[in-house]
Design a protein that fits this description.
By secondary structure, this protein is α/β, with parallel strands linked by helices. Helices cover 51% and strands 12% of the residues. It has 15 helices and 8 strands. It is globular.
């Protein structure tokens, strides 16, 4: 049995807490918000995971020290805009060699760093790994079979975490391409916004298939330019995560895109979704990375134009369709 601290009490943090508890581990869940912990304590379930009860023996705390002390490893499950701030709070609380599993998906706009790079910069003494793949919290919390990837620079760390997360309903593969895993995880949210916009405009399956296949081509081109393995983008953390995020009713990025396609502004869509829409935070960073490395990313470019420049979504799609003729790459 391992002692594990879940740093972040959102739906994904709680779903992983339930999974790890069922695997026989001792779990403490932390949130910076007292109101969030009170809801969990009073209802013994997360509002987004209806009917999935939180066991009485699972600790729910607002003290970060209490959540960190004596744990074998931590799962950092806060939304991407809060990763740096939370890592700074953890810096003086964690011991040397502390394993931290990042499950947030994004790229920091100001620095163009991935989430694990941010954690490594803020907590140099930590051993940082990433967990990613097609895995909606609503399904993992209910024990629906899911397959995912663990990434780290150290094979021993990957195998240790693989053994702890693995179960009959949660299959875990190893992949040492940490940057590739994180790039796919962050940029698929931007493409999912595009897929949602297409749905909101009333387009069909043909349009979505095009966005998924051309979207992964963009992400892979950029990833290879950054030194990532091409095959990572055609695995679970690339095309797998992209498919589920573009197609699922659980996807907050797709939901936000649908609302934008129906005529709402980015701000109005985010307010209606009522959850952090990670793709909005990664869109500018993704485009900046592409420009920095001279990589063409037309879908990401058009999503940025719709989100931040007020471009009409239908005009963005038309521009994608009327680009210069070329061979498929």
């Amino acid at each position: 049995m391992s002692k594990i601290g879940i740093i972040g009490a959102g739906s994904w943090g709680c779903a992983l807490a339930l999974l790890l508890h069922k695997n026989g581990n001792q779990i403490t869940v932390w949130s910076a918000l007292e109101s969030e912990i009170e809801i969990l304590k009073n209802n013994r379930e997360h509002p987004a995971l209806k009917g999935v009860k939180i066991p009485a023996e699972m600790e729910l705390v607002t003290s970060l020290t209490e959540a960190v002390n004596g744990n074998d490893f931590l799962v950092l499950a806060v939304a991407s805009p809060y990763v740096r701030e939370t890592a700074r709070k953890l810096k003086n609380l964690v011991p040397d060699g502390q394993i931290i599993v990042n499950v947030a998906k994004g790229i920091e706009e100001a620095t163009l760093l991935t989430m694990s790079q941010i954690i490594e910069a803020e907590i140099p003494k930590a051993k940082v790994s990433v967990l990613s793949g097609p895995s909606h919290a609503e399904e993992v919390g209910r024990g629906i079979p899911t397959t995912i990837v663990i990434g780290a620079n150290c094979n021993e760390t990957m195998e240790y975490l693989q053994n702890i997360f693995m179960s009959e309903v949660f299959r875990v593969y190893k992949n040492d391409d940490v940057m590739g895993i994180e790039l796919g995880a962050a940029l698929k949210n931007v493409v999912a916004l595009a897929a949602g916009i297409a749905d909101g405009l009333g387009y069909g399956d043909n349009s979505k298939a095009a966005l998924i296949t051309r979207g992964i081509a963009e992400i892979a081109r950029l990833g290879v330019a950054l030194g990532c393995k091409a095959e990572t983008f055609y695995g679970l953390s690339g095309i797998g995560d992209l498919i589920v995020t573009c197609a699922s009713a659980h996807s907050r990025n797709r939901r936000a895109g649908i609302l934008i396609g129906q005529g709402k502004s980015m701000t109005e869509a985010m307010e209606e979704v009522k959850m952090v829409v990670e793709g909005v935070y990664s869109a500018k960073a993704g485009l900046s990375l592409a420009h920095k490395h001279n990589i063409t990313t037309p879908i990401i470019e058009q999503v940025n134009a719709v989100l931040f420049s007020g471009k009409n979504p239908a005009s963005a799609v038309k521009e994608l369709m009327l680009r210069d003729k070329k061979a498929e790459d």
